[in-house]
Structure formats: structure tokens, C-alpha cells
Amino acid sequence: MKRIKLTIAVIAALVWCGSATFSKAPKDIRIGATQIVEHPALDASRKGFETALKDKGFGEAKIEFRNAQGDFSTAQLIAQSFVDDKKDLIFTISTPSSQAALNATKDIPIVITAVTDPVKSGLTSKNLTGTSDPMPIADQVALIKEALPAVKTVGLIYNTSEANSAASIAEIKRELEKAGLKYEEAGVTSVNDIVPALTALLGKTDALYLTTDNLISSAATLVVELSTKANKPVVAAEESHMQFGALMTKTIDFYQIGYRAGEMAAEILQGKAVSDIPIEPPKENRVMVNRKMAAKFKVDLNNPVFKTAEIVE
After folding, report:
1. Is the per-residue pLDDT at 3 higher than 70?
2. Helix segments in the chain, DSSP class H
3. pTM for the full model?
């Protein structure tokens, strides 16, 4: 009988330990949120995450938000501070922020979003899940072919030190080659490199493809302005680029992938094992086209590729 009582006590203790973190009231739950840099797509993901938590009953949870201002070493310091502070969950926005968090802990649940290729970025662990943001790049190249038939060479500018960029650029090159289009590329490592690199690139290309690269996206206003002045249309990888004057895109919704990440966080805080929640890609894409830019570059809005497009005024 003694042995049975001891066994029951041990099992009870294990169950308590396993659920202790998540038996807290929402107001006592502490979440660390870390983002590599501010730009509209990442900001939209963060907003979606926060809204989902509220919708799922965790509106009173304390979320400490930290921005690494584009610096990976700062992202690592932020992640370590969340671990030292024993946060209940860490929410990471972008590939570098996610890598920093996973370097810092294999125990605290990590929910990622806005990561293009989690596997190639080394983001696989039993304490990590979330949403990825692979773009429909083949569809984007098809959009270029259909809407801009005069384009023969596409310009690519990207941050050579960002894993997120490497994955995207490799795929866009493959898809451009499949479509019979040429490309010219320019690698940069800081904002100061963008103007000279872009100026040289625009002289050799017919259009520019704007990637989800965090460095380039944070300077999207400048990139689109220089391209438009050079009379080269900008094809955007994601929605937020449209507000800066990009011509068109077929893309995912960053708010929605952030919202889904928030739903996953709520499931974890309710006691579901992280390892039981697989990383999810976005489920829907949409076409967007800028009316003013379409007129400037003589793009026909009656083209069938724009049949379901959202017109940006």
C-alpha cells in the first residue's frame, strides 16, 4: 500500500510540475516578444498575435516587447534576458529573433512567426512552433510575365547576412530562370550600402523585385522611390511594400500569420504540448495592384491576372 501511495504522489507531483507554469491566471502570465526591426509586415504580425491572445482569453497577460533595431547581437541579449527573467513563453518575429531565442533556451516555449524557412534556418526543437511566411514566389514571377511582358531582366537587392534573404533569393532566382527571365543581383549588409548598390542595379534591369528581407523592407520607402524615379516598376514580395508605391504583388497576410501564432500561444498556455503543434505556413494568398503605378507603367488593370485583385489607391 505504501508503494502505491508513493507512486500516486510521484505521479501527482509530475502532473503538477508539468502544468504549474500554465495554471497561472492570465494576469500572472509573462510573455517576452522580440522583433529584429520595425517595419509594417513585422508590426502587423505582432498586432495579429496580440489580438489573438485577447480573443482567446489572455488579454491580461503581460507582454514585454523588445526591438533589436536590426542587430543580431542585441537580439541575443534580449532573448537571454527573457530566459533570465523566466518568461512563460517567448514570441519571436523574424528569423534572426527566432534563432537568438532558440540559442538561449531549449525549455521555455517559443512561438515564431515571419520566418521563411524554419528548417533551413535551424529552427527545429521540441520547445518551438509557430507560423512561417514563405511567399508564393512562383506565382509572383508568373505575375511579372503576365502583367509586364516587356520585362526581360529583374533586379534583386538583399542582405547577404540574413538567412531569411538567402532562402528567398535562391528561390526567386530558380523561378525567374524557369520563366525564361534574367536577373541581376546586389548584396548589401547595411542601410548605407543600399543607395549605391541599388543605383548600379537599376541601370542593368527592367524591373525590381522587393524581397521580404528585413533590412531592405525597413528601407522600402527609399528603395521604391529610387526605382520609380529610374522608371523601373517594383514588384513586391509582401503586402506592406504596397503602401510605399510598389506596383503589384501576390502575397500572404502577415496579420493573419501573427494571429495564428497567437492562437498557438494560447493553446500552449492552456497546457497543450509545444511538440504537438506543428509549424504552419500561411493558407491564403491575394493579388494587389497600385492604380497610380499601373497608369505610370502602362499596366492594363483589365488583364485577367487582376480579376480578383485588390486595387490600392
Report:
1. no
2. 2-20, 40-55, 72-84, 95-104, 137-147, 163-178, 191-202, 214-218, 220-229, 254-269, 291-296
3. 0.74
